[in-house]
Amino acid sequence: xxxxxxxxxxxxxxxxxxxxxxxxxxxxxxxxxxxxxxxxxxxxxxxxxxxxxxxxxxxxxxxxxxxxxxxxxxxxxxxxxxxxxxxxxxxxxxxxxxxxxxxxxxxxxx
Length: 110
Fold this sequence. Notes:
Number of helices: 4
Strand order of the largest sheet: 1-2
Radius of gyration: 17 Å
Order of helices and strands: HHEEHH
Low-confidence stretches: none
Structural class: mainly alpha
């Protein structure tokens, strides 16, 4: 069992923590321009989207060269994005995406 993903999760948490903790650490952050607040609010989802895209679309082939692969994982990412957009709930979207990919793998697809 590999622990690479655990290290990646810790690293991503450390990278995104400053933008998430900024409202607690900087008094008066609500006085920032709306565009700056929107940017800070979207840093976390942008990082999650880039991780999801890189982990689901790019896989090494037999020669070790990265290539784009469309598999059941991309359906999970699309479902997750749709639910997050519709319900504004990241946990629900992630849960639905993971369950969909698990069901597709159990069914032998992918």
